Amino acid sequence: MQESHVELKRSLGLWSALAIVIGTVIGSGIFFKQASVLQMTGSTNLAMLAWLLGGLITLADGLTLSEIGSQIPHTGGLYQYMTHIYGEFWGFMSGWMQVIVYAPAIVGSIAGYLGLLVTNFFGLGSVWKAPIAIGTIILIAMLNMLENRYGAAFAIVTTICKLLPIAAIVIFGLFFGREAGFGETVTSIHQSVGNFGVAVLGTIFAYDGWILVTNLGGEIKRPEKLLPLAIILGITIVIVLYLGVIFGIFRSLSAAKINELGQNATAYFALNAFGAFGGRLVNIGIMISIIGALNGKMMSFPRIYYAMAAKRHLPFAKQISSLNRHTQTPVVATTILLALTSLMILTVDTDRLSELCIFAMYSFYIAAFVGVFILRHRNGGKPAGFSTPGYPVVPIIAIIGTSFVVISELFFDFVGAATSLVIIGLGIPLYYWLKRHYKNDDSIDVM
Fold first, then answer.
1. At residue 90, does pLDDT exceed 50?
2. Cα 51–Cα 57–Cα 60 angle in degrees, nearest 5
3. Rounded CA gap, 348 and 108, in Å?
């Protein structure tokens, strides 16, 4: 059998998809953002409300996109949705932004943070940060070059492992917390705070990543049913876990102490709650949590490269769209992501680069959510698959919530928003060159 005829293996069940949703979302954000959200809201009660609202907006996003995913259950997620709803040009633009900057930058940013945690944990010099980051993504990339069941199994294992420190924080706060936790106001914390909207914005970013499971639509069994279920259950579970962590921290540390410690609040809590050994175990759990998030991204992002190449939307399309005949995975696409990520880690500020993509990515999210109305119109006013509960209110909430992110980016990082538009613009001449270059070359249908 020729490599060009090899297809992705549709072998991922609900547990695998669910683990990818949870594991990709829960990285480091929930463990280190308590102080920043608390400072911006001005009270512990409002901080908890900000986390809840951010979760509900994310759930509205997931419910809305689930309707689209059930109708277009193909590999490539957002790229496929934009192509199907708005045409090849806008599909290409959404995919181009992801493959050229967003995917390698976000993987590099998370890997870099893991490298920092590992060097601090073992008392290594900062010179080891980049080698540890790159070494980790190499190992994870190699794992995801095997059959997809191995990456899925690793996602399940790391998700279970990351639940342990979360459970420890929740249980300790529930049964052994001695602080008032709720009701502390801004006057006892900080002098100039109170931007509730910015706090909600920060929590929305902490919930981001769930959409990546849609990139695996061609490998999930019965995706028209299991994909919406995995998204909705996954986001709901993450909301509960996030609120549980916030509750545990607020019950265990005073608001003033959390504000003083900043990003070190969770580490301080672990040390005081469980002793030196227990604290180190919790910190190991956090590092495993980040590794799990990296695995989800290294598993899902290469599918965008593969799907775009299959439609002849990337140079070297035949090579990138090839699948290994033994593992049925996009090895070349995974290698490209690995190479771009490693290069970025060594040469640029991946944190800043990933921030530059926020405006563009969330703009495409808005377009996708609006697409629910377009698809219903095409289908005579009825959903063709999964039906978003609370339609049309829930999609409108998703659009408004995501628009809030886009508008906020314009206000708080106009240069970044403009830069992301420039990056998208650079893809326009490439799109038309590819159309001419591959005009006599048939694209490959992908699941």
1. yes
2. 140
3. 10
437 part of a folded domain: no
Query: Residue 64's domain is classified under what CATH number?
Result: 1.20.1740.10
Helix (H) or strand (E) holding 275: helix 265-310
The whole-angstrom separation of Cα 219 and Cα 11 is 6
What the block records as the tokens of 272 is 């005081």
The whole-model pTM stands at: 0.91
Please report, as a single letter, which amino acid is at residue 196.
F
| Residue 89: partners with Cβ closer than 8 Å, 6 or more residues away | 431
- Please enumerate in sequence order all residues whose Cβ is within 8 A of that of 298, keeping only pairs 6 or more positions apart, or say none: 107, 137, 140, 141, 144, 151, 334, 337, 338
Element (H, E) at 375: helix 358-378
Q: Which ranges of 2-128 does DSSP label H, i.e. alpha helix?
A: 14-25, 29-32, 34-41, 44-71, 78-86, 88-97, 103-122
CA atoms within 13 A on the CB side of 348: 18
Structure tokens at 20: 């990818």
DSSP single-letter state for residue 99: I
What is the extent of the structural domain holding 323?
Answer: 3-351+362-405
Given a contact cutoff of 8 angstroms between Cβ atoms, the answer to whether 372 and 69 are in contact is: no
CA distance 220 to 231: 12
Q: What is the DSSP string of 327-365?
A: T-S-HHHHHHHHHHHHHHHHHS-HHHHHHHTHHHHHHHH
Match 């279970």 to its residue by tokens.
160
- Could you report the per-residue pLDDT of 147-201, keeping only the tens digit for each? 999 999 999 999 998 888 888 888 888 887 776 566 665 454 544 444 888 888 8
- Nearest Cα neighbor of 145 from 353, 332, 363, 406 is 332
Q: Please identify which residue in the block is written with the tokens 């996109």.
A: 65
Residue 178 lies in a domain: yes
